[in-house]
Structure to design on (719 residues):
């Protein structure tokens, strides 16, 4: 099949599957629905694998409805965009498969959940593959709406509803800001196609309108990417969403926000008349730094396992933002490898947390202390996942971290320290939880009823019949995901393909030419995608820091800082700011937009 | 018209934000979200507006005889309406469930998630 046929299929297959399931779910029994959904998800994987292998290092385009790019909507896939869609597609069958064991809420028909998952997948695939700004907004809202519904899927408990409503209102408000930005850009250029937008902007001067449009468009993407201070919805949504949904949200949806920022900056704003490279570079590095540090600090403070993993995602998003903001092909390569492997590892960790939730009805690190001693396999996998999160070679997370550190270190020699620190602390937090829960390490913890925190106790088990031994598939799935993460790090072909993709991704002239005139442009010089001795050493360093931190924390659990110490006060203030109140979150969002506007406008 | 419409769009967005930040009722908050969305309608339609022009419907109009307003932004606004309707309906449905099962629609009464 040609690319022109594969590209629309990649969006159409899950959409059709969702429609089919919504109808067939009324007639078919549960098993039939699950087979149908797994079939659709499998077809999507085949479609995207074909697309990914087909266009070795080029940009594949498809003009929808036969309209040329200057009039119609274009789908465009380079290895990075197609690779992200493939990551989504790999996670979806896992989710659909594991849903087999989960309990349906009463009053729902069997097709509802897989249909929503496929709709979510269609939104994400479309967002990754589109070459049109307004089309990107529509897909953004499609994946948003599906994600809100999935987050609030278990309506028996007030917390999922709370999390879903906050998530929905914050993200939708940001999406409308984005639409205002798209309107402003259209007023300036009369275009919506990314490539033509970039061309048209070149004939204008950069002014407040350009800066305002850029910040407004970036708002929705930063909310999706959960950059500080746009991140507040994410831990709340992750704490309450069904475990399979967390795997998709943390593994792929959040990363799509980072992808969207990079894609739109490179294709639209990177040329003359856009936002100067220096302004993007400084602003987004600062934003990434803040996100990485705050995410790591908050991650360390959590005892609710899902919130802990959610804050670790935030911290990693900060690292991705720093690497993307380098605006070099090397930085893009590092991010691509890191995102792919992080998505797999994070999905595996959420799946393992799901096992705990189903067996003990709790995801509380303190409450589960030593309870899961007999789940040895799960425990070993959990610890391996924690070490992978910390960047241990040969996991793909380690390779991605090494490549990003290398690229960042060439600009600022101290930046690799941030990468090592953030990945070590988040890895250590997960490792600490694993050691306490599965090995009962250290003394049991006293309860802290006066503390502002979410404990994670008293959760409803999600599977159909909570039993003594979890279904075997629930341990096989995370093992496979971790295996795939090793493959990303150790198969040179994958990193090389992503490096070629990064060369195409960071070449706006090539993108414009491919979308508008369809030549087969030769890719530029290829950035490196191999392990280096420094990379391996830094990976081992962050892993050993993580191990040391976790051991120290387990041995001596009570905080030694007096309550009035400035550091203790800072932590308390930060935790209070995550108040769960919708109004607070939107006030932070407004503050973030204002700060970004000032930062970008001051530098243009 | 001119800049005034753009300022009005900005103003509508800001009052919606104020409403959302201070809201004590989820129905009111979702209404505010719809107000925020109306600012996008204002801006989009203002972008395509032309003085003395008519609607871009050619069933009773020979192309080229009269200036018409930009149909692209109208299509965008229409898509935006559909997107907004979906999101509003979904959020309202979640709010109804919250009211039914937990007897509150005050976002500040929801304290299950913090820290």
């Amino acid at each position: 099949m040609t690319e022109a046929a594969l590209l629309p299929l990649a969006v159409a297959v899950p959409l059709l599957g969702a429609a089919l399931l919504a109808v067939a779910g009324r007639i078919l029994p549960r098993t039939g629905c699950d087979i149908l959904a797994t079939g659709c998800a499998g077809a999507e994987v085949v479609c995207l694998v074909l697309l990914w292998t087909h266009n070795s290092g080029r940009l594949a385009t498809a003009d929808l409805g036969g309209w040329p790019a200057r009039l119609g909507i274009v789908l465009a896939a380079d290895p990075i965009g197609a690779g992200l869609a493939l990551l989504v597609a790999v996670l979806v069958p896992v989710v659909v498969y594991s849903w087999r064991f989960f309990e349906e809420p009463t009053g729902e028909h069997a097709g509802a959940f897989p249909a929503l998952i496929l709709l979510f997948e269609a939104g994400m695939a479309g967002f990754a593959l589109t070459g049109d700004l307004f089309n990107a907004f529509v897909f953004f809202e499609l994946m948003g709406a599906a994600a809100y519904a999935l987050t609030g899927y278990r309506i028996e408990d007030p917390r999922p509803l709370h999390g879903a409503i906050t998530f929905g209102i914050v993200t939708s408000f940001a999406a409308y800001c984005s639409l205002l930005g798209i309107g402003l850009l259209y007023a300036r250029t009369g275009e919506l196609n990314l490539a033509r937008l970039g061309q048209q902007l070149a004939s204008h001067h950069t002014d407040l309108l350009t800066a305002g449009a850029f910040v407004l468009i970036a708002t929705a993407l930063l909310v999706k990417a959960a950059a500080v201070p746009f991140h507040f919805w994410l831990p709340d949504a992750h704490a309450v969403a069904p475990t399979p949904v967390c795997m998709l949200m943390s593994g792929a949806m959040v990363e799509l926000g980072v992808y969207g920022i990079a894609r739109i900056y490179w294709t639209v704003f990177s040329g003359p008349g856009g936002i100067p490279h220096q302004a993007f570079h400084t602003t987004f590095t600062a934003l990434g730094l803040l996100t990485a540090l705050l995410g790591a600090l908050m991650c360390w403070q959590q005892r609710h396992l899902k919130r802990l993993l959610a804050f670790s995602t935030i911290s990693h998003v900060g690292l991705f933002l720093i690497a993307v903001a380098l605006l070099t092909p090397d930085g893009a390569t590092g991010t691509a490898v890191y995102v792919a492997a992080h998505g797999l590892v994070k999905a595996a960790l959420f799946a393992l947390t799901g096992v705990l939730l189903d067996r003990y009805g709790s995801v509380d690190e303190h409450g589960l202390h030593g309870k899961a001693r007999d789940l040895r396999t799960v425990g070993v996998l959990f610890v391996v996942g924690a070490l992978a999160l910390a960047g241990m070679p040969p996991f793909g997370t380690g390779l991605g971290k090494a490549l990003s550190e290398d690229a960042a270190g060439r600009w600022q020699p101290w930046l690799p320290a941030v990468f090592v620190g953030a990945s070590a602390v988040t890895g250590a937090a997960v490792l600490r939880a694993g050691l306490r829960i599965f090995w009962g390490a250290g003394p049991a913890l006293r309860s802290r009823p006066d503390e502002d925190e979410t404990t994670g106790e008293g959760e409803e088990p999600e599977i159909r019949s909570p039993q003594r031994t979890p279904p075997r598939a629930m341990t096989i799935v995370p093992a496979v995901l971790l295996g795939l993460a090793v493959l990303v790090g150790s198969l040179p072909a994958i990193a090389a393909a992503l490096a070629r993709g990064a060369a195409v991704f960071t070449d706006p002239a090539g993108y414009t030419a491919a979308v508008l005139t369809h030549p087969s442009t030769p890719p530029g010089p290829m950035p490196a995608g191999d392990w280096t001795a420094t990379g391996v050493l830094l990976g081992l360093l962050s892993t050993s820091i993580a191990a040391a931190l976790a051991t120290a924390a387990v041995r001596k659990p009570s905080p030694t800082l007096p309550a009035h110490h400035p550091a203790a006060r800072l932590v308390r203030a930060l935790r209070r700011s995550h108040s769960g109140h919708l109004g607070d979150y939107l006030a932070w969002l407004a503050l973030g937009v204002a700060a970004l506007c000032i930062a970008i406008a001051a530098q243009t | 018209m001119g800049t005034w419409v753009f300022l009005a769009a900005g103003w509508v967005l800001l009052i919606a934000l104020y409403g959302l930040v201070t809201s004590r009722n989820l129905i009111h908050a979702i209404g505010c979200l719809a107000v925020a969305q109306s600012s996008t309608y204002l801006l989009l339609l203002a972008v395509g507006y032309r003085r003395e022009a008519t609607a871009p419907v050619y069933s009773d109009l020979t192309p080229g005889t009269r200036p018409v307003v930009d149909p692209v932004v109208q299509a965008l606004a229409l898509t935006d309406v559909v997107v907004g309707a979906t999101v509003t309906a979904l959020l309202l449905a979640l709010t109804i469930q919250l009211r039914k099962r937990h007897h509150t629609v005050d976002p500040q009464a929801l304290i299950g998630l913090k820290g």
